[in-house]
Amino acid sequence: LHDISHTAARYVVNLLQNNFTMAALTRPTEATYTIHENVTVDTTDYEDHTFCGVMFPIEAQSILPVDHIVLESVSIRGALGKLTVWVTKSGANISVDPDNWIQVYEAEHDPSWRKFVELKLDTKIKVRPGENRGVYVHSKMQGDEAIVYDNQKADYTHQDNFLTIYPGLAHVCNKPFGRTTMWGYGNAWRERREFVGKLNYGAVYKLWNPENCTAFGNKFQGMTRALFMCQRRWESPMSRLPDECIFYILNLCRWDWANDEGQFVMNRSSSSRTTSDAEQLLLHQQGTQSDEDSDEDDDDEDNSNAPSFWRHRGHNWARARYYPTRVLYDARRIAHASVYSQHHHAHAHAGLFDGDNDDDEDDDDSSYEEA
User: Fold this and answer.
1) Rounded to an integer, what distance in angstroms lies between the CA atom of residue 21 and that of residue 12?
2) How many angstroms from the chain centroid is the CA of residue 174?
3) Which has the closest alpha carbon to 104: 58, 72, 133, 149?
4) Three-class HEC string of the chain
5) Fewer beta carbons within 10 Å, N or C terminal of the chain?
6) Taking phi first (over 0 means left), then psi (-120 to 50 degrees means alpha), and beta for anything else, what does residue 184 get?
7) Which of 190, 200, 152 is CA-nearest to residue 52?
């Protein structure tokens, strides 16, 4: 009986080891719930133009610890008709080449001039932080009243903690990705146009893991340090828990449970943010043409190379000719802060800072100006 019980116990142990893993050792990296927050983006509406379609890029922000956002629907207004919605394939360049796009919606709608009509996508689009995807809404209706859109008014059509919508192109052909205009000549694409409508998307947050701790706010990081400091003290009940259990507890905490504010995290991220390729694209548009073009045949000559900026999405094209002013400004500000930081630490180590001494402050200011 002793041998049988020993064999059975060993069998159970082997079974558990081979088929079960402690949850603390297999922490997920993203939330298991599908959508944690639903956000509706409502763009500015000046009703500048109507025509067959509008194409624009979107970019998921890396400000908050978001694993990805999920684009669920697009809302537009106008004469509508038979509508299709397209998005670029993951990793594909945003261009007017139909091979880079997939269709995610098709249906026919009655006219709606004042109320936005929601187009729920057949396939939800997942966009990772820092990733750019193109969205193209098109109508096959004859004429020039199908979809309302605007002239470009600013660098961004919309920007929040999760998503940036950039200006893009208007399309004046009733065939998706068509190259001919309704009057038979000229280019079918118009630059510096903005999407008018709503985007409905959800945000799925990252879950805490040691490798992405710095993506969370300062208060959350402080809470993490406090837990491990308690664990290292023998008199604390937390000392009985191994590291893996602390990891698992933190993994179950949402990013704002430590009372971190999204605005603070946004400001911290924006201080080290570099100009993206999409921002360079906007500077290129603004540097080449004005904002007051109309969508009639008199601007065909100005727009003869309209889709060109969609093709020039390489890393060096904008840098060679239109180096972003924002990059120069950020570089100057960072260098300014770096000089001050080095000066401050050098004097601190030399014992030159003596509390609130006014004479020392004057000396510091003069030394700083020289630096």
Assistant:
1) 14
2) 31
3) 72
4) CHHHHHHHHHHHHHHHHHHCCCHHHCCCCECCCCCCEEEEEECCCCCCEEECEEEEEEEECCCCCEEEEEEEEEEEEECCEEEEEEEECCCCCCCCCHHHEEEEEEEEECCEEEEEEEEEEEEEEEECECCEEEEEEEECCCCCCCEEEEECCCCCCEECCCEEECCEEEECCCCCCCCCCCCCCCCCEEEEEEECCEEEEEEEEECCCHHHHHHCCHHHHHHHHHHHHHHCCCCCHHHHCCHHHHHHHHHCCCCCCCCCCHHHHHHHHHCCCCCCHHHHHHHHHHHHCCCCCCCCHHHCCCCCCCCHHHHCCCCCHHHHHCCCHHHHHHHHHHHHHHHHHHHHHHHHHCCCCCCCCHHHHHHHHHHHHHC
5) N
6) left
7) 190
- Residue count (the chain): 371
Confidence at residue 37, expressed as pLDDT on a 0 to 100 scale = 57
Pick from 319, 80, 310, 86: nearest CA to 192: 310
Q: Of 26-35, 152-161, 211-220, which range is least confident?
A: 26-35
pLDDT score recorded for residue 341: 58
